[in-house]
Design brief:
heterodimer; A: mainly alpha; 6 helices; B: alpha+beta; two-stranded antiparallel ribbon; 8 helices; 32% helix; globular
């Protein structure tokens, strides 16, 4: 793969050319858009604490769960997807379904979690809730394995939808 | 709670030099059932391709500063889901440590899946502190005691289950994959009584600070 491809991935000019989806939109361009909304992202809309100078802040920094490529090796997508891009798990520890994406081959580098990884993540959320550590905001790396982990942690906390 | 996608939490880009990564779009994720905060704009605008480990520390520090600023006034508990080195690179500067790019791969290589570090401060004027117990009450008095223990026996974890670090696959193979589907809806009182009544099948063990690597909780 060329450096040019890698560049185009992160190049913010894609944003203006309207190539949907191969990048994450940027922060600095959006600050002006939010000019009328001071309460927006400058202070979290999720936090429940009052705005005093004594605001305890805590970060839970977590690695994603077990990843498919570590279990089944590079090139696992060749076995798991057919010509039409339909996904067929070939082992019980593979995720039962996968979200459709523009090119399924991208799952090779941007790997999903295994079934065990999904369960691990749910259990983490469940344990954190049990220790009275419900989260007030959630950030994830744009890597799919991290997004899936975040999703399952929130679900295990009972906070996915709320 | 919607998930905010933050580019600055991604791993060192030079580790992906051979096979660049195409992230999924918001649209694909939303269609796939993920609750993404599509109003949020990543605080890090773009990633430098082929950044080295030192630059990775630097970029992570900046990303962390921006996230802290977003939550400085309101406080709360913020979940950051990222990668093995994130436990180090997102906290190193908060603990007044210097980057150590040459050791990053080695140190973070020990961090197993779903391991987590908790770092907190009482107020913006107080220093950051690692958490040494998941139990808040136990944590207050215990962390100092553990630091003393640590100086005497640097290799000893709080619970003698360090073996799962050496055999990561053995940690929780006993949990059936379908387990989460059978669990009842989350209910706090429900789980409190469960936790008291039944031994917990799923538990973190504490991995103390070694070579100034952040202490963390592992499965």
């Amino acid at each position: 793969m060329s450096a040019r491809k890698f560049n185009s991935l992160f190049d913010p000019t894609n944003f203006f050319l309207g190539h949907g989806g191969r990048k994450r939109e940027t922060g600095k361009y959006e600050y002006t858009d939010n000019g009328n909304d001071e309460s927006g992202y400058q202070s979290s809309s999720y936090a429940s604490g009052s705005e005093t100078s004594d605001a305890p802040l805590r970060f839970i920094i977590i690695r994603h769960g077990e990843r498919v490529d570590v279990m089944y090796g590079a090139g696992w997508t060749q076995k798991a997807f057919d010509q039409t891009g339909r996904y067929y798990p070939f082992d019980a520890n593979m995720p039962p379904t996968l979200a459709p994406r523009a090119k399924w081959i991208d799952y090779d580098v941007d790997t999903p979690l295994t079934a065990k990884g999904l369960t691990q993540s749910w259990n983490v959320g469940n344990v954190l809730a049990r220790y009275n550590l419900p989260v007030t905001a959630c950030y994830s790396s744009p890597a799919f394995r991290s997004i899936q982990t975040a999703d399952r942690i929130l679900e295990g906390m009972g906070r996915k939808g709320i | 709670m919607p998930i905010r996608l933050e580019l600055g939490l991604f791993e060192c880009t030079s580790w992906y030099a051979r096979s660049p990564i195409n992230f999924m779009s918001d649209e694909e994720l939303v269609r796939g059932g993920y609750n993404i905060d599509t109003r949020f704009r990543s605080q890090t605008s773009d990633l430098r391709p082929l950044e080295n480990e030192y630059q990775y520390y630097d970029r992570s520090k900046d990303a962390m500063k921006k996230i802290i600023e977003l939550h400085r006034k309101t406080g709360g508990t913020v979940l950051l889901v990222a990668h093995a080195p994130s436990l180090e690179v997102l906290t190193r500067h908060l603990m007044k440590g210097q980057p150590r790019p040459e050791r990053l791969a080695e140190l973070s290589g020990k961090v197993d899946f779903c391991s987590m570090t908790i770092i907190e401060r009482e107020s913006p004027s107080k220093p950051w502190q690692f958490r040494y117990s998941l139990d808040e009450n136990a944590n207050r008095g215990v962390w100092q005691q553990q630091q003393e223990q640590q100086q005497q026996q640097p290799q000893q974890p709080q619970q003698p289950s360090n073996s799962s670090l050496n055999h990561p696959k053995a940690a929780n193979v006993a949990i059936p994959a379908a387990n989460y589907q059978l669990q009842p809806q989350f209910d706090f009182t429900n789980y409190l009584s469960q936790a008291l009544a039944a031994p917990q099948k799923f538990q973190f063990h504490f991995v103390p600070q070694q070579e100034a690597y952040p202490p963390y909780f592992a499965l």
